[in-house]
Amino acid sequence: MANTRKEVEVQAERFAFSGRGEVYSFTTVQEPPAGYEDQSPYVIGLIRLEDGPLVTAQITDLDDQPLAIGDRVEMVTRKLTSEGERGMIVYGYKFRKVLQRA
Amino acid sequence: MRDVAIIGIGQTPVGEHWDTDLRTLAADAARAALDDSGNAAVPQAVYVGNTYGASISSQAQLGALVADYAGLRGAEAFALEAGEASGAAAVRAAYLAVASGAIDTALVVGVEKATDMVGTAKVAARNVTLDADYEAVHGATLPALAALIMRRYMYEFGAELGNFENFSINAHANGSLNSNAMYRNKLKPGGFARAPMIADPVTLFDGAPDGDGAAALVITAGQNAADLVPHPVYITGSAGASDTLGLAEREDILSLSAAGLSASRALAQAGLTVQDIDVFELHDAFTILTALALEAMGLAERGTGWQLARDNRIGLAGDVPLSTFGGLKSRGNPVGATGVYQAVEAVLQLRGAAGANQVANAQTALVQNMGGLGSTVITHVLKG
Predict the structure, then answer these.
(1) Is residue B200 within 8 Å of A45, Cβ to Cβ?
(2) Do B141 and A54 touch (CB under 8 A)?
(3) What residues in A contact B137, CB-CB < 8 Å?
(4) What 3-state DSSP class applies to B120?
(5) Interface confidence (ipTM) of the complex
(6) Does domain A20-97 have CATH number 1.10.3470?
(7) Domain extents for chain A?
(8) Chain B residues close to A29, C-beta within 8 Å
(9) Burial class of B357 by CB neighbour count within 10 A (0 to 12, 13 to 18, 19+)
(10) Cα–Cα nearest to B381, from B368, B372, B362
(11) I need a labelling partner for B317 at 20 to 30 A (CA). Which of A53, B60, B177, B265 fits?
């Protein structure tokens, strides 16, 4: 069976995502890797961005709110992990549920 | 290309081998395989399958180490790393070397010491096979990514958690008969969905346990094989395929395209269809992977792979026998060795030497080993 080759953009054009999307799937990690213990248990999901792509990221600030596939979420910047007490802090994107207006 | 045959098999029990080091496990399996072949041919090459040597065992360059301890110092020797498909990658390397005529006889050794680390350090060491920049950095783990697929699958197709339990019950029923299996307990119906969650909906009774172990094959040119041993088993199809490393990059996370591609390539080479296969050893690290692999190979329609388990078609007497020695779930998952264990078990079936685990009149077997959640997939078709 022949392979097909498709063009991969190595020098991709810069594109700013809206940061909004919806939950495509999610789970709660009960057995975290080293560096993530202090956040455990945490929720990680696949987010379908409004702009099209799917991304893997944590869903944060949930407290005790229920979460379901299809929930609207927005991107926030958070600490992902830190490399020990004196090491580098790694920041990145997470998502939180879009707050309903009161 | 020459025909290729397996003339020797060896394996250690899978478990927590805290009193045995990696080189000794590898040497034990290698010696068993060479003895099983009647020492009919001396391998000129040693191909080692291993995944976590560097991250768990602090040991790379396993080719030289294993060749030496297998008594083959001087042979061409190197290790292959293809995530959890490393074992099958080593089998494929041996197949290619022998089929091409470059090597007459090769030794394949899959070896892993996966239980020498525990807790969060172990999870981090295991995470090296994930997409580091886009998934592992977010705290993803392999069970968590499997859970993302499984939850979406259940949502799209209306499958319930309990619908997957017969995959695990079948694996443990078969593994209970295998003295090399890590967990020989049987699972009771109804327990699967109530088991503790690792990453919901993936439970403790869903994900396969990591174990230590080594398995080995002696592979030689098919034309001589019948003169060397009483019952050679022929590799009539061998093919790999790849998919995105990161789960989020997939065009469709509910389709294991590399599983379908590698199986169809291997079957086409063997001149068979999937319906011709008598025994299946699939990569049942998670039940969702088995369901999706069955769909990818055309044994079930999209969204219905779990129904083969529900309908009791996967037992030793079923029409699609799976995990006949317990699979990854019950035999255990000695990660980089798993693909070699699968091949050893398929050879036992095709020799008619599987004892209580025997599938009646097994003539053909399909063995599929998967790296990650289908990023690397290697399939072999074997004939007795």
Answers:
(1) no
(2) no
(3) 80-81, 90, 92
(4) helix
(5) 0.95
(6) no
(7) 20-97
(8) 139-141, 144, 199
(9) buried
(10) B368
(11) B265
